[in-house]
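lol forgot to send this yesterday, sorry. struct tokens for the thing we talked abt
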């Protein structure tokens, strides 16, 4: 994210997208045991996504509060804002002809959230007429979701949900664009996701609560230029 290519915008989300970015809600279905184990690659602590305690203090990052993003050439960063609550609810990263939307959530110290969130997503997608197919990716289980596009556009919209359970947090990503369906582009976006640093902090927070995000100094709020981020944000948590 060089001086030539870097952009940092604050996007104001639709109410639907803002609603979905609130704290995750997990509901245990009757007769089903909830898998509370942590879901993460074996090399998470050395290859990311990282906890703030695992990276050198002097390494340069774009500091967004609960999330830090590593600069790289060709990366464009946009923040999404809930206008009603006047707060940042997600970080969208445009890279390699793709869009990666990331959010970090508080989690228990010894148990994870992703298995339960994935099941909840699958149920909610089915209720909305979308399909959600579980696949195994480099980070572990992920969901490939296809949602019917508006009638005037036709076809479907594809998004891929990924997540990693870390120390007292879960980092979730939604991949859209080329990387959602193209393995080569997805590999580059996964590398970007693994460079993210999560700043959980010491304050007590209930599990599944969204970690606070903030607007860096000098970044002005702008209205959205398109609906890509809203499409990703509209996916229920």
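and heres what i got for the seq, position by position
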């Amino acid at each position: 994210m060089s001086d030539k290519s870097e952009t940092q915008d604050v996007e104001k989300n639709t109410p639907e997208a803002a609603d979905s970015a609130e704290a995750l809600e997990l509901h245990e279905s009757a007769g089903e045991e909830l898998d509370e184990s942590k879901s993460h690659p074996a090399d998470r602590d050395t290859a990311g996504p990282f906890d703030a305690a695992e990276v050198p203090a002097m390494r340069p990052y774009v500091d967004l509060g609960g999330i830090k993003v590593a600069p790289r050439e060709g990366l464009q960063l946009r923040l999404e804002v809930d206008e009603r609550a006047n707060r940042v609810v997600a970080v969208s990263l445009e890279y390699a002809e793709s869009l990666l939307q990331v959010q970090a959530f508080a989690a228990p110290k010894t148990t994870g959230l992703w298995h339960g969130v994935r099941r909840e997503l699958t149920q909610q997608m089915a209720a909305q007429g979308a399909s959600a197919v579980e696949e195994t990716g480099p980070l572990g289980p992920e969901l490939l979701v296809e949602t019917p596009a508006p009638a005037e556009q036709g076809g479907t919209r594809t998004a891929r949900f990924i997540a990693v359970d870390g120390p007292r947090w879960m980092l979730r990503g939604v991949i859209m664009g080329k990387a959602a369906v193209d393995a080569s582009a997805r590999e580059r976006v996964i590398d970007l996701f693994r460079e993210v640093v999560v700043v959980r902090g010491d304050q007590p927070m209930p599990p599944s609560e969204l970690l606070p995000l903030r607007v860096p100094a000098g970044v002005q709020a702008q209205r959205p230029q398109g609906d890509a981020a809203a499409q990703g944000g509209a996916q229920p948590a």
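The first helix runs from residue 15 to 20. anyway ping me if u want another try
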